[in-house]
């Protein structure tokens, strides 16, 4: 990773970020997104689109985690004895 | 996105079912794509580790909610949900081993909040975890690059910059970072979140299978 930074073309005092680096990162990000990964126009998706979809995807994931944690808290609170025994048995594996 | 959450087989009445379920998921998911090493990291046995860490946290959550004097009415439902969410996030951040910004930010926030509060019911448990992690994070592995963003103006389409900034606000601890840092952290964070969702899904399924109760009324 550090080798990529030393490859930047600008020869000023501070290390500047090269566009290739940013493009690589955006491409890597694009491959993580489920919607853009299967798209055949893989080289025509703009960076703004990728970033926007990334934001949406992260928000979706956050919402899912919130929902799941609510369900988990209900489950844990409602059935005390059953799951307590379950957890204990799992922890002593 | 439905392809991420593979259907679990019915859990047998055996305490070894969880590891087999997770192993089954791991194998089915690792066959889909083969990216870099970060991909392998969040799909590998780290999943087992975070699972056990989360179980321990969840257990303490249960003790906390049962010992507190709150009634079982709706006002505390959200707090319990938030407590579970925070515990899950903390477990996720711990299993990141302090190599990423967002995990350090999550844990740092928890510590700050805990020091601000006066009553600390979980104090006996949390410092044992956090001290280990903070020593690991303070001896930082040099993952914080000092790169100035000024020279980015070749491609500084304001929309791209704006979107990167908003993305940085979503990822914990990356509000003021430079663009490549935000992008890197986002890739790792997304994979970690996906793993968290999968683990919580399987946990919910298993618990609801065992308790056998009807879904709670909304």
From TrEMBL, chain A:
- Name the predominant localization: nucleus
Occurrences of domain BHLH (ranges): 6-61
Any one Pfam family here would be bHLH_ILI
Tell me the compartments it is located in.
Nucleus
> By its UniProt entry, which InterPro entries does this protein fall under?
bHLH_dom, HLH_DNA-bd_sf, PRE
Query: What are the recorded GO MF terms, alphabetically?
Result: protein dimerization activity
Concerning SUPFAM superfamilies, the annotation shows: HLH, helix-loop-helix DNA-binding domain
GO terms for cellular component: nucleus
Q: Which Gene Ontology BP annotations are present?
A: regulation of DNA-templated transcription; regulation of growth
**Keywords of the record:** Coiled coil, Growth regulation, Nucleus, Transcription, Transcription regulation
Q: Coiled coil: which residue ranges? A: 58-85
Q: By what name is this protein known?
A: BHLH domain-containing protein
Record organism: Brassica oleracea var. oleracea
TrEMBL record, chain B:
> Where do the BHLH domain residues begin and end?
144-193
User: Where along the sequence do coiled-coil regions lie?
Assistant: none
Polar residues bias: start-end ranges: 1-20
Gene Ontology, cellular component aspect: nucleus
Q: Does the keyword Transcription apply?
A: yes
One molecular function GO term is: protein dimerization activity
Q: Name one GO biological process term.
A: regulation of DNA-templated transcription
Q: Does the keyword Nucleus apply?
A: yes
CDD domains according to UniProt: bHLH_AtIBH1_like
Instruction: Show the segment(s) annotated as Disordered.
Output: 1-22
Query: Which InterPro entries does the annotation name?
Result: bHLH_AtIBH1-like, bHLH_dom, HLH_DNA-bd_sf, IBH1-like, IBH1_N
Q: Which UniProt keywords apply?
A: Nucleus, Transcription, Transcription regulation
Q: Where in the cell is it found?
A: Nucleus
The protein's matches in PANTHER family, at most eight in alphabetical order, are given as: BHLH DOMAIN-CONTAINING PROTEIN, TRANSCRIPTION FACTOR IBH1-LIKE 1
Q: What is this protein called?
A: BHLH domain-containing protein
Identify the species of origin.
Brassica oleracea var. oleracea
């Amino acid at each position: 990773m550090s080798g990529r930074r030393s490859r930047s073309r600008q020869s000023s005092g501070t290390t500047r970020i090269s566009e290739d680096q940013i493009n690589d990162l955006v491409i890597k990000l694009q491959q993580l997104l489920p919607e853009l990964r299967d798209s055949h126009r893989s080289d025509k998706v703009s960076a703004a689109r990728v970033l926007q979809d990334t934001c949406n995807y992260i928000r979706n994931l956050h919402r899912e985690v919130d929902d799941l944690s609510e369900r988990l808290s209900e489950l844990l609170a409602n059935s005390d004895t059953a799951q307590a025994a379950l957890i204990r048995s799992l922890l002593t594996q | 996105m439905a392809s991420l959450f593979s259907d679990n087989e019915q859990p047998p009445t055996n305490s070894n079912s969880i590891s087999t379920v997770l192993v089954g998921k791991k194998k089915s998911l690792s066959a889909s794509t083969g990216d870099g090493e970060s991909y392998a990291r969040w799909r590998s046995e780290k999943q087992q580790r975070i699972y056990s860490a989360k179980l321990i946290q969840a257990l303490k959550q249960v003790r906390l909610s049962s010992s507190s004097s709150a009634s079982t009415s709706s006002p505390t439902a959200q707090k319990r949900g938030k407590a579970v969410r925070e515990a899950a996030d903390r477990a996720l951040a711990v299993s990141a081993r302090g190599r990423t910004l967002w995990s350090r930010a999550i844990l740092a926030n928890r510590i700050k909040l805990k020091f601000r509060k006066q009553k600390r019911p979980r104090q006996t448990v949390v410092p044992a975890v956090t001290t280990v992690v903070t020593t690991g994070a303070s001896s930082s592995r040099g993952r914080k690059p000092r790169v100035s963003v000024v020279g980015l103006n070749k491609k500084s389409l304001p929309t791209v910059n704006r979107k990167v900034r908003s993305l940085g606000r979503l990822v914990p601890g990356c509000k003021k970072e430079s663009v490549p840092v935000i992008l890197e952290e986002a890739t790792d964070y997304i994979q970690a979140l996906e793993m968290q969702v999968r683990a919580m899904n399987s946990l919910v399924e298993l618990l609801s299978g065992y308790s056998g109760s009807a879904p709670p009324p909304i």
